[in-house]
Specification:
28% strand, elongated
Length: 57
């Protein structure tokens, strides 16, 4: 619930968090030494973004 997330969710532009999901995916992949993907789910009412990491091997 960071201020920057709230500002992005309230902007008039379409908001995506795919860049952040990509960073998380790469970090988890490097730490665990396994390929993975990450997806985001936006909960606008509670100003929260949920990231889910899925291993693809």
């Amino acid at each position: 619930m960071a201020d920057s997330v709230v500002h992005r969710l309230h902007s008039s532009l379409d908001t995506e968090f795919r860049l952040e999901a990509g960073f998380l995916s790469e970090c988890v992949s490097l730490i665990k030494q396994r390929p993975c993907e990450c997806r985001e789910e936006i909960h606008k009412k509670i100003h929260q973004i949920e990231f889910t990491t899925i291993f693809t091997d």
